Fold this sequence. Notes:
Residues 312-410 form the BEACH-type PH domain. Pfam families: Beach, PH_BEACH, PH_FAN. This protein is an alpha+beta fold and 1272 residues long. The protein contains 23 helices and 51 strands. The strands form ten sheets. Strands 5-6-9-1-2-3-4-7-8 form a nine-stranded antiparallel β-sheet, covered by helices on one side. An eight-stranded mixed β-sheet has the order 13-12-11-10-16-15-14-17, covered by helices on one side.
Amino acid sequence: MTISWFQSSSVMSSTNSSSHHPAEFSASGHNSSTKSHPKLSIAEAVKTLHPSSKNRHAVEAEQTRFSQLLLEHGEKHLQDWAVIAYSSPAKEQDMKHNSTAAPNHNNSNNKRPTKSLGVIHHHAAQPQQPPPKRRSHKTSKSKTNNNNSNTNNTSTVDAEVYPSTAMNKIEGRLHLCSRSIVFEPTDPSRGIVRCPFRKMDQAPTEYPPVSDAVSLGERFESMCIEFRAQRHVVMKEHAAPAPFTTVPAPVEFRFTFLHSSPQPFCDLCQKLFTLWSQQQNSASQHEVPELDELLQPMLERPFDSSHLVDVRERPLTSTSLQASLLTPLQRKSGCVTVTTERIYFQPAAGALTPTDTKAMHWRVPKVVATACRYNGLRDCALELYFRDATSVLLAFERKRDREQLLRFLPRHAWSFTDREFLYQVVKAWHAKQISNYDYLLALNTAAGRSFHDLSRYPVFPWVIKDFESAKLDWNDIDKTFRDLSKPVGALNPERLQYFKTRLEGMQDMDDSFLYGTHYSTPGYVLYFLVRSMPEQMLCLQNGKFDAPDRMFYSMNHCFNCVQSNHADVKELLPEFYNPDDYDFLINARGLQLGATQTGERVDDVMLPPWAKSARDFLRKSRKALESEHCTKMLPKWIDLIFGSKSRGDAAKEADNLFHSCCYLGDLDLAAMKTEHDRFQAELQATEFGLVPDQLFVTEHPSQVDPSNPAASTLDEAALESVINPAFGTSRSLAGSRDYDSASGTKAEAWELLDPPSDPSIPNQTSSGALVRPEHNDLHSRPNAMTTATTTFLQQQNAGSNNPFGGSSSRPHNLPLSGSGDTGDGGPAGRGAFSSFGAADNGSKSIQATPSYDSATSVSPRHHHPAESIQTPTEWDMKLLERRQIHGDAVSGCELVLAGEEQTQLLATTSLDGGLMAHTVSLAPQATEDPTRRGFTGTLSRFSYMSMSRGQAATSPQSKLTEFRRHSARDPLACLVLTSDGAGGQVAFAGGHDDVVLAYGINSSCAVASVYSHRDAVTGLDLIPRMSTSNSALWLEKATHVMVSGSWDATVKVWSVTVAKGETVSVNREPLAELYDADSSIVCVSAVSVQHLEPNGGAVVAAGCADGSFCVWNLHGDGVTTVIHNEPAKRGSGPCSVLKWSTEGGKINLFTGFSTGKVASLTLEGGVLRKESALSFGVAVNALVYSEGILLVGCADGGLRLIPVSNGTKFDGKPSLWPAVNNRNSPGISSINVTYAQVEGRMMCICCTGAEDGSVALFELKRVVRTSGFLSS
């Protein structure tokens, strides 16, 4: 799992230098987690997965009678009020009058939408109404005589049969929902009344009207509303789960508000009624966008601190995380907050005013495991498992919010969707340390299945196939046991032949499949669990139970259908093998499930003759699952469900191919063009059934055979080859960063890579440059911060045969990559490239057009050239390569481009735990037209036009070729690269596992590691040795000094030796430990000052999460002094990136902040002095300085170029390239720049890494304007 560490670090401003992992301390400051609750063994961890009806859905016990299960699919609850209810049958003459005045919404197209498509192929009709109770003739006659005067004015309705039609002063709560009005009486014996908008003539109005207040004031109290409903539904009478009752007569309802004016209710209800009408006219099944605007204030409401259980608790999240609590068929929106003691979920309630809702909470030390889950098709949910075997499922708006919560959980907690857990659980089962039942539960959990999600419910196999014998014969394998090597659909050869014949007829179709239904759907799950989850079934079936003949009433009948019915290939559930949970087999609630066509009443499930009771049936089923035969055959079934035969050609060969929607993931969702397409795909996939994540890529190994242990030996290498390489490092259905989970839509694309422009001018026209996209997603979505710090390139020992060897043809002191977080932007300056701006022989001048249209040119011109007497200078960008290489934000990128070989190295790290190395080829294509060699001409004619069509402006021949790949278990947060002096390259990476890893690029393995901090390592830098003299800072044989920073608010200095052959040794004892930072360290940068201090000193700077930064001087004699400690300013946000520069013999520092501020400072005489500052309109994430320019990467995806004079002065106006890495403009999270000599021409090559895992490689070049011409 990946952890977005920007948000985690940015909220840690209150931690001090002695802080430890937040989950390890109670509110009083005492360690309450790791000592008292050690990590569970693998067997104990699996036990927490066991289902239990009494605690699996413990969250539901806290619900009131009203819940989302009573609403339509996708309907939302907005607000509720305390009211007193009145009702009476509507007068016919008034109904006729209103029917001519009000629009008719009661057409056939306005049926309540069906909630599930799984196995229920018919359309749910209106439930039949119970017949009126028989009444004596005398009573009826008396009533008729008494109401003789109203016979022609009032519709006939029996108040005893339908009490909701004659309510008089009934107290309760009135719930306003997005498609209906619901009245929940306080008296539980009375049914809940739901009035859909489609059955109402018009929206509710205040009553009485002003003109009638005097005449009607005596009959009804003030502060009332009234409306008429042609039909209404009554639910949960006597608090019993029973089919909903539809009252067929028009009824007039009036409600008196007890504590507030009804006007806000009427205003909001009128808006909802109008939106509902628009939705009907648009023929769309999902809500109109205006509804989201009404709900937004409720969803964005911050956490109320009055919900804290202990006043000593300290919040660890600076802002509340928007999330939803998921239970079967229900979604409760709200926000999550983590404190030092508890995790809180505050339900969102009250679209108009906050309502008093109790926050749920769970103690952090009780969390024993986590699992990444899916929210529909989006990988952004998290399930928390507790020590008492309960769990909760939280779906977040964004994946990074989930990862922030993970940051604060105990370290001893297992991650059930981590590669290490799968590795350990396979080993445990292979060694017979856990049962088959436990193993299948673990595999389901690892593959994304959860008891809280009916669309991904755990799946278990049919094991027994004999449901007719009086006694099971365990020795008769063929008669008793099902063939686990075949899927359910292939158990009957005749039916399988039918499926294959149908498949042959689909060869010309895009979507061909063997089975039209899946083995696990919400409909199948509730088919089995209707007796234990009746309310969910009523919700799924639109207020009624399924037809009795289609219900689960007999095990034998069910298995016969599974073998013969062409639309039934379902597998079983874990409940069938848990003897302690048999309530789904007995009708303990006395549900009225009807009778079959044979007259047989549906009650308890009819068990096979060999079962004495429900518990005995489950015990024998469990015995069959744990039998020797099942254990031997179980790997075959695992291959079909979780393994190599679960998808692709292997699935087709194994007769295990389902409809394409069963294999959809969030990447497929993001690739869809319209919101309607995404909605339909997600709805179809989650209701039709989804194939679990693939865990294994080869045949699953068998368990140890006691008679032949040598033949069943499983070594670590063999086990690693079995497990899916993609599992654990990035989800097998990894998410797309282009998809905005918050809005449910794909972010609007920036179709063009606009030219550099002046960001200080808000609205530029075609004569200027940048035209902002109309959507405002740039400022609404959070941006992950990356804190990859960098080193100085020291290329040594040319002549190696290794493509990454060689020496630089010119020395550079270039800090390579940086990072940051979200914020805001403004004016900037001008400078010039000192060397790489020189024109080469192949360049030429072109005529400049009078004005620059963003659709035809990429070379901007400044708006006021007369302001400067200097020759106007501009910069152009030529895109060389753009590629998605990681599954999460790129936290560091390092370029090694030196010499004439033209094939060099790009190293990157990512929050997905990946470390990758790519070879980079800068050689031009053989077909390149030399007359088009000019940089400006190439970009404006080829690159820009191709980008305007939505294509990457790259050459057909790729510049990047993958060379090495390494996957860590935890996110990698920072990267620095150095040479071994003999052609090799070593990458140092810091991660969330508190370790600094040294990885040899050529060796393709980890060559060293050091446990450096007590929390995540967020910054690294290396200082190469410049002098041969030894000192306290420079030990004998040391080649580098490494500086690391961490969330534990410390900076440490290490002695490192990098030798030939990528041999690395790190002194285990740090040279210095610096504790002067005010909060968690976000980034570090270091530089040698040997030219100022003969015995070899260094200067170290560290940026902090609270916006402060600190600078130390490390003297060669071991003395450390604090040069500068910049205090945090209120609301300043993290100091996201800082970089040293020693250009011109001066020591300068550049800093960037999440507020959008960039500043330069000079260190002189032991004093750090501020020189220049500017502010952008968006957060600074990364920056790098080189030879008179400062390149700044921001959270809006734009790359800014700031000219710098005299080393620190921001001079002139900055240039801007928006959407550098992707048309959807992911934030730039790391940046690097270096030089390469290509065919006699010096090129400035820049690389940017982005939050979506992409990298962009491009060339920067100076263009000088002279007399209306552009020359390069």
